[in-house]
């Protein structure tokens, strides 16, 4: 394993590692995530954030090691298939693809809520069409463009934070319902906030060779991105709580927009809304790229029809992109952002439980902290998935039952 890690040092290194990962994380989880997390844990939310960070760090370590041994699209899926067998890999892959579709739906719906709340489903569908077309022609936001978009996201969040702390909050209404002050909701909050950290796999598990960095650059970029995201999420949550309070934050479907009204800064809402909507488009594109990576691995293994791997003149699998976009548009029209985000989190937690288990077997001979981190990540992923809302768990159960049956039926192979 050490030799394989050392061989990755021959890859290119650069400052692009940071926006590649952080640009995929600063999304819906930061703009919307604090609300359902507050509903789950109330003042105990910071502990949920810490648990989510630990679970994500373990999963990032697992995928980083897997991408070194299994380079190419769907590295984690390939590792699980090789180390655990066909059925676990199909369960994990089904959960991952469904989770990415739900994530795309949540992101697109939030874009609609920010850009034109009265027609959010329609705007979400248009945003998905735009992203699918962009992906099909080969658009990839990297380098300077990634830094510009990352700066826009930080600027939007910074404006909201400064506004919240600059204006004295309105005293809470005496009849306002109070949240239960209990630590029981910590796992539920952690499960929701796990979604906020997703995007690290764009760096630790790149789909194309151009996104591969040296081991040291990948490790440094991942650590810095996770810490930076934790800081940003903490500051944004603190600003929202300062202005809205825990109870009002828990009831807010779009806290970033509502907090401006509460702070008597409603004039800024259109500017922040458009800025947030534009800032989320690269995140939506990143989610589609992540879907494409694992889906291509299933196409190569004949678990999905080979026709889906057909490429456009730009070399992109346009049928896969269109399939993901249509599925996400249907979900975005039918499901609100928070429930979609909960389903995405639950599906992806199931996926990362298998990923960490596969990494545990991969690193079985290395009695070092990465192997122990994989064990911890597997356990945390299971616990957090079981702490999600019942509706999200039921949707995930349907996925992990139907997905393997469908892929097995298509390939006509069961082992």
UniProtKB/TrEMBL annotation:
Cell compartments where the protein resides: Membrane
Gene Ontology cellular component list: membrane
Topology of the protein relative to the lipid bilayer: Multi-pass membrane protein
Gene3D superfamilies noted in UniProt: Amino acid/polyamine transporter I (1.20.1740.10)
Keywords: Membrane, Transmembrane, Transmembrane helix
InterPro entries associated with the record: APC_superfamily (IPR050367)
Recorded superkingdom: Bacteria
Keyword flag rRNA processing: no
Transmembrane segments: 12-32, 44-64, 91-112, 118-139, 146-167, 179-200, 221-242, 262-288, 318-335, 341-363, 375-406
Protein name: APA family basic amino acid/polyamine antiporter
């Amino acid at each position: 394993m050490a030799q394989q890690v050392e061989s990755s040092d021959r890859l290119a290194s650069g400052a692009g590692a940071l926006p590649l990962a952080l640009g995929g994380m600063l999304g819906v989880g930061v703009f919307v995530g604090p609300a359902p997390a507050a509903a789950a844990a109330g003042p105990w939310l910071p502990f949920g954030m810490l648990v989510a960070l630990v679970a994500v760090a373990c999963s990032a370590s697992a995928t980083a090691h897997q991408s070194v041994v299994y380079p190419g699209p769907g590295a984690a899926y390939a590792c699980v298939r090789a180390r655990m067998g066909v059925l676990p890999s199909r369960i994990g892959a089904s959960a991952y693809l469904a989770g990415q579709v739900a994530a795309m739906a949540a992101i697109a719906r939030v874009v609609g809520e920010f850009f034109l709340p009265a027609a959010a489903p329609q705007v979400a569908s248009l945003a998905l069409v735009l992203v699918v077309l962009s992906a099909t022609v080969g658009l990839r936001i990297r380098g300077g463009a990634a830094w510009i978009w990352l700066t826009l996201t930080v600027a939007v969040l910074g404006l909201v934070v400064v506004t919240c702390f600059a204006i004295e909050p309105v005293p809470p209404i005496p009849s306002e319902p109070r949240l239960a002050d209990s630590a029981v909701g910590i796992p539920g909050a952690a499960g929701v906030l796990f979604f906020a950290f997703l995007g690290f796999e764009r760096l630790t598990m790149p789909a194309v060779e151009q996104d591969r960095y040296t081991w040291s650059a990948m490790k440094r970029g991942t650590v810095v991105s996770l810490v930076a995201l934790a800081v940003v999420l903490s500051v944004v949550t603190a600003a929202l709580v300062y202005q809205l309070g825990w109870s009002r934050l828990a009831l807010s479907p779009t806290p970033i927009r509502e907090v401006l009204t509460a702070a008597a800064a409603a004039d800024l809402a259109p500017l922040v809304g458009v800025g947030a909507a534009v800032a989320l488009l690269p995140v939506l594109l990143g989610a589609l790229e992540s879907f494409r990576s694992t889906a291509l691995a299933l196409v190569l293994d004949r678990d999905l029809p080979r026709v889906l791997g057909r490429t456009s003149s730009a070399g992109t699998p346009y049928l896969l992109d269109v399939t993901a976009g249509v599925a996400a548009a249907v979900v975005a029209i039918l499901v609100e952002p928070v429930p979609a985000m909960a389903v995405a989190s639950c599906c992806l937690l199931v996926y990362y439980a298998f990923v960490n288990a596969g990494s545990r077997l991969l690193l079985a001979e290395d009695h070092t902290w990465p192997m122990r981190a994989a064990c911890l990540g597997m356990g945390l992923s299971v616990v957090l998935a079981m702490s999600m809302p019942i509706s999200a768990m039921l949707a995930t159960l349907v996925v992990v039952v139907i997905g393997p049956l469908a892929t097995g039926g298509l390939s006509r192979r069961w082992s």
